[in-house]
Amino acid sequence: MARVLVADPIAESAIKKMTDAGLEVVVRDKDADGPIVEQIKGFDCIVVRSATKVTKEVIEAGDRLRLIVRAGVGLDNVDQDAAKAKGVKVMNTPEAPTVSVAEMVFAHMFALARNIALADSSMKDERWEKKKLKGVELWQKTLGVIGFGRIGQAVAKRAKALGMNVIAYDVVDIDSICKEFGAKRATLEEILREADYITLHVPLLPQTKGMIGRKQFEMMKSTAFIINTSRGGVIDESALLDALNSGEIAGAGLDVFENEPPTDWKLVKHPKIIATPHLASTTVEAQARVGELTAEKVINELA
Ligand code: NAD
Known about the structure:
Layout: E1 3-6, H1 12-20, E2 24-27, H2 36-39, E3 45-48, H3 56-61, E4 67-70, H4 80-85, E5 89-92, H5 98-113, H6 116-124, E6 142-146, H7 150-161, E7 165-169, H8 175-181, E8 184-185, H9 188-194, E9 197-200, H10 214-219, E10 225-228, H11 237-246, E11 251-254, H12 266-269, E12 273-275, H13 284-302
Parallel strand pairs: 1-2, 1-3, 3-4, 4-5, 6-7, 6-9, 7-8, 9-10, 10-11, 11-12
The site of nicotinamide-adenine-dinucleotide has 30 residues, from α7.
């Protein structure tokens, strides 16, 4: 019988699913159990979230270890090189938050388009500022999607349902996916120049760090809104602040920041900004899906 060590808390339903599939599941008790480097012996699989560090020592001590599953997105706490060297498979659940993040993009888009945050705060101050808060529609506007992977595609699908024209840019070939989603493939420059709404869905890499900076803001429409739910650092924050102050763009929705929490709150406090504290994947459903997908992956590999 394959044995699974669950080292960080995951949903009870995920543990039941693995047990029902015939796996022996042991939930680690950090206080009572010894160091993980000793406990790992005899297990085929370890499941972690972000707390437990699966170091080279842990991997080498795992005499039966063949699978590491990170329940969640990042893999910073797993030594992937050591796993590869020992032939241990590493998996995570990056697909779990896709719908939640895509929906958050629209929460930001509608909030920007209709001045929801300003309207709400002025109402709470007992002011009725109907004339000052005229909005714009999403219908028949152009949405530029930068990074057309899981989340970018989920956004495109929903944008089509709202009657938006979708243009998409990616470094990989997305011709057939664009066709499937009714989107038009575009260059980065076309997106910057043509889009009314721009949404970022790229990973943070040396090539994407600061990819939206002064030069890119200059190309955008003065009425454009930009939304970032990918990673802070993809947008150059000081260039964004200048672009908002000079009227180069109309506003921005930010879920992610160069520093989290921000060390400088100027950008967050700007009236043309809607800010959320890295909330895009924080939903009941996305968190439940992490457990379900983790169990499915473990069962597929081991049962
Ligand atoms: P994905 O891997 O499915 O898609 C990313 C896409 O970006 C890929 O198609 C890739 O080819 C493309 N890409 C890479 N470099 C590029 C470049 N230089 N220019 C254009 N495109 C480029 O990832 P995903 O699941 O869609 O996630 C997208 C982003 O969202 C990631 O940065 C992820 O960390 C972030 N994310 C944020 C939250 C949140 O809570 N805010 C939650 C989940 C994911």
